[in-house]
């Protein structure tokens, strides 16, 4: 580790604010102290600096060290909210009581977190970062996590009373609480069109269109459980929406991938033919690529599944096509309560250009949330409900037709009633005829 | 009766517009980028169709920042950058500048301030994590501490791009797994059913909603010592701790029996293979603050074997799919147990339904 030591971890760990505002003596923290060495920036050093600023952080360090000693956590939830809202705050009360029944670390007995929605793509100016930090230093512990796993800016540690003051202050200059509890949650989107040539969508607009359409469902939790929107501009899915969002929007395209053969040749020349065959052609999951004898690239676009691999490798030569849109997947989530589920394709492709297109995606989101709110069980995510009732019933509930892109393969179990087969086959034929015009 | 104080109604502005905080070149070229490359680890270079270029310096942070850290970083960005910054999903900061000349001075300043520049391309980027003992109500461990200890060890892999492909590591403080999945996921598994304080349940807990939360229907209402309470069928219980948040008298925290487990091969990208969930490879790893050396040893071993054995562009999951799980356990020298065989519903498709065997 010695050679990796940064030039000045000492500077950080010995930095003491000139003015010590906290009045409590520091607790001894021998275990936490061990996390101050090493090359990575230390959150413990940060906590200690904050402890110079307020007594809450002095006692927070005391409780955290106690957790490190006993290997147990000591927080429990409760109910705290700001006026007009029902959620958006994670209340935390200490469970750590002394023999007299009073909190062992009284200054940190309340240590609530406010969830605040960042802009799509998590963009900030330094001016705005400082302003948020100043407000939190005034009304809270000063500690901010950029960002929580749901996508919020997490303002960690304040009292019930100060939550309102802090919210009022930042709400005046443009920030709003995110979701906590059974509600629509803060959304996430990748940097996308702002800085990425692989973007196939207007992530910022999709993100704000969807989330801000359900702001009442975010601030007043009344759904079966959480509901998350995440937007990725291409199938690389940098936002992990497919695994972590109930409503996952992923940019894609449906015409031919764009190939600049001159750049392909330049890439082959620079990297060698073996590299291109081994790392581009051979890694194509559907064998849709072939390197020609003259070092140009053949693409079987009909069989391309738009996985992004070759485009990721040859960033200059290959690009998504021009006919861009999105794929929509519903029902991704983490473990609770039936185990992990990926999002399922619900719309293989739709354009998102006109106001009508955006109305359409809003409608799909609204019917999904409405149907789930009516049919979901207590603490049941949308994906779990789909698993329980079956995809076909869900599609019928929200008014969408079946599509073979929704499945990996058709059913294998023959234990099924097929009484209405003819009517269903007729529907398919009619849709095909309509599509053909 | 005195009039109640007038409360300020909230401005329900929702998600703010990003364009007010975005670098001017990003606004100008929104949706019109041509290509990108990586001049060195930690730096991205994007070229727009207009010919404009933007450089991004990526900096690792400790995620939880105070005013000192925020002002220190903002001072550097204001002095040497252009005042614009964004955060990645893994809590790295990205500083965008319009001129190549500004890149090296920025890197130098961040490194001198103790902040590593890296995390791009085929590196081990910052570990995404949850709140742990600092703020969560059912944590088995402290994610921030595990991450700090591991990132100290993996610092070199953050500042270099030496891996076969990118490596995303995640931690979660319990098996509910808020931290998500990754190429390597370090999760705590509570291994003992909750201890119930029956005197408190009736007063604190809404019993039907606690019953509804249990993923395996192990909780049922019961009368204990003449009071309404809950009981847990311990044979069914999978020790997830989901009953604790609505019912704090069902204590899941256990200093001795909560252990870390290591999972590998998750990825969300559609690149090459379809997205994959992570799979269990090691469990029973001691929850050993403040440095969790046992977990670190296993993670480093997996990374070392992956780095040596995987082909270019193979994520950990792609690599294991190619070489097969028996070979993975052989190479990493991790024991294979009956607990690696899933017994959750619908798990038979995970068994080997073929004669495909490597010798």
TrEMBL record, chain B:
GO BP annotations listed: sulfate assimilation
SUPFAM superfamilies documented for this protein: 4Fe-4S ferredoxins, Nitrite and sulphite reductase 4Fe-4S domain-like, Nitrite/Sulfite reductase N-terminal domain-like
UniProtKB keywords: 4Fe-4S, Iron, Iron-sulfur, Metal-binding, Oxidoreductase
GO-annotated molecular function: 4 iron, 4 sulfur cluster binding; dissimilatory sulfite reductase (NADH) activity; electron transfer activity; heme binding; metal ion binding; sulfite reductase (ferredoxin) activity; sulfite reductase activity
InterPro entries xrefs: 4Fe4S_Fe-S-bd (IPR017896), 4Fe4S_Fe_S_CS (IPR017900), DsrB (IPR011808), NiRdtase/SiRdtase_haem-b_fer (IPR005117), Nit/Sulf_reduc_fer-like_dom_sf (IPR036136), NO2/SO3_Rdtase_4Fe4S_dom (IPR006067), NO2/SO3_Rdtase_4Fe4S_prot (IPR045169), NO2/SO3_Rdtase_4Fe4S_sf (IPR045854)
Superkingdom of origin: Bacteria
TM region positions: none
GO CC list: sulfite reductase complex (NADPH)
Domain 4Fe-4S ferredoxin-type: 228-257
Cofactor(s) essential for the protein: [4Fe-4S] cluster; siroheme
Protein name stated in the entry: Sulfite reductase
Natural source organism: Sulfuricaulis limicola
């Amino acid at each position: 580790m010695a050679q990796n030591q940064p030039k000045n971890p000492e500077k950080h760990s010995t930095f003491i604010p000139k003015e010590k505002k906290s009045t409590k003596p520091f607790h001894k923290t021998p275990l936490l102290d061990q996390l101050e060495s090493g090359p990575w920036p230390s959150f413990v050093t940060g906590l200690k600096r904050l402890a110079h600023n307020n007594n809450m952080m002095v006692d927070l360090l005391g409780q955290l060290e106690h957790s490190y000693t006993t290997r147990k956590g000591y927080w429990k939830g409760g109910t705290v909210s700001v006026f007009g809202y029902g959620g958006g705050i994670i209340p935390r009360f200490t469970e750590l009581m002394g023999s007299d029944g009073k909190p062992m670390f009284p200054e940190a007995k309340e240590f609530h977190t406010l969830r605040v929605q960042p802009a799509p793509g998590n963009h900030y100016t330094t001016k705005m970062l400082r302003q948020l930090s100043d407000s939190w230093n005034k009304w809270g512990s000063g500690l901010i996590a950029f960002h929580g796993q749901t996508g919020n800016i997490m303002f960690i540690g304040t009292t019930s009373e100060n939550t309102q003051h802090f919210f009022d202050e930042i709400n005046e200059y443009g920030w709003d609480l995110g979701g906590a509890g059974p509600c629509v949650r803060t959304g996430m989107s990748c940097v996308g069109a702002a800085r990425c040539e692989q973007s196939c969508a207007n992530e910022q607009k999709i993100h704000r269109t969807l989330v801000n359409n359900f702001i009442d469902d975010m601030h007043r939790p009344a759904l079966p459980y959480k509901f998350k929107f995440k937007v990725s501009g291409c199938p690389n899915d940098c936002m992990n929406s497919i695994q972590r969002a109930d409503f996952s929007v992923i940019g894609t395209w449906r015409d031919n991938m764009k190939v600049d053969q001159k750049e392909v040749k330049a890439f082959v020349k620079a990297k060698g033919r073996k590299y291109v065959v081994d790392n581009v052609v051979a890694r194509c999951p559907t064998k849709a690529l072939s390197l020609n004898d003259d070092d140009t690239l053949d693409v079987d676009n009909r069989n391309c599944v738009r996985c992004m691999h070759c485009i990721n490798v040859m960033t200059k030569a290959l690009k998504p096509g021009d006919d861009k849109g999105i794929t929509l997947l519903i029902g991704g989530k983490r473990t609770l309560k039936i185990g992990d589920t990926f999002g399922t394709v619900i719309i293989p492709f739709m354009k998102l250009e006109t106001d009508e297109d955006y109305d359409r995606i809003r409608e799909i989101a609204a019917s999904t949330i409405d149907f789930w709110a009516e049919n979901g069980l207590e603490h049941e995510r949308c994906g779990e409900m789909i698993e329980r009732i079956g995809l076909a019933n869900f599609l019928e509930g929200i008014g969408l037709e079946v599509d073979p892109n929704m499945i990996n393969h058709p059913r294998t179990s023959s234990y099924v009633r097929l009484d209405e087969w003819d009517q269903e086959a007729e529907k398919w034929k009619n849709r095909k005829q309509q599509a053909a015009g | 009766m005195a009039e109640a104080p007038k409360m300020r109604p909230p401005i329900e502005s929702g998600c703010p517009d990003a364009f007010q905080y975005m670098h001017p070149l990003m606004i100008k070229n929104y949706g019109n980028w041509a290509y990108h490359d990586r001049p060195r680890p930690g730096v991205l270079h994007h070229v727009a169709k207009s010919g404009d270029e933007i450089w991004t310096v990526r900096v690792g942070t400790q995620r939880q920042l105070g005013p000192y850290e925020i002002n220190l970083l903002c001072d550097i960005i204001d002095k040497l950058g252009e005042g614009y910054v964004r955060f990645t999903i893994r809590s790295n900061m990205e500083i965008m500048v319009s001129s190549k000349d500004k890149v090296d001075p920025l890197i130098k300043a961040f490194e001198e301030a103790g902040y590593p520049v890296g995390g791009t391309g085929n590196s081990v980027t910052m570990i995404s994590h949850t709140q742990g003992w600092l703020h969560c109500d059912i944590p088995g461990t402290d994610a921030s501490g595990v991450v700090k200890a591991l990132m100290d060890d993996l610092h070199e892999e953050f500042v270099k791009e030496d891996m076969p492909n990118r490596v995303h590591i995640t931690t979660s403080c319990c098996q509910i797994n808020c931290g998500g999945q990754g190429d390597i996921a370090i999760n705590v598994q509570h291994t003992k059913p909750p201890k119930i304080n029956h005197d408190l349940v009736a007063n604190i807990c809404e019993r039907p909603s606690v019953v509804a939360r249990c993923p395996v229907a192990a909780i049922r209402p019961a009368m204990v010592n003449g009071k309404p309470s809950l009981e847990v069928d311990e044979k069914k219980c999978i020790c997830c701790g989901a009953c604790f948040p609505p019912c704090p008298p069902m204590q899941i925290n256990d200093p001795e029996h909560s252990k870390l487990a290591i999972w590998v091969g998750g990825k969300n990208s559609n690149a090459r293979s379809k997205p994959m969930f992570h799979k269990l490879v090691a469990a029973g790893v001691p929850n050993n603050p403040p440095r969790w050396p046992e977990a670190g040893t296993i993670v480093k071993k997996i990374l070392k074997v992956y780095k040596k054995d995987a082909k270019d562009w193979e994520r950990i999951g792609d690599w294991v799919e190619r070489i097969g799980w028996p070979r993975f356990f052989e190479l990493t020298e991790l024991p294979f147990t009956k607990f690696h065989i899933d017994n959750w519903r619908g798990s038979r498709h995970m068994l080997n339904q073929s004669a495909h065997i490597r010798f």
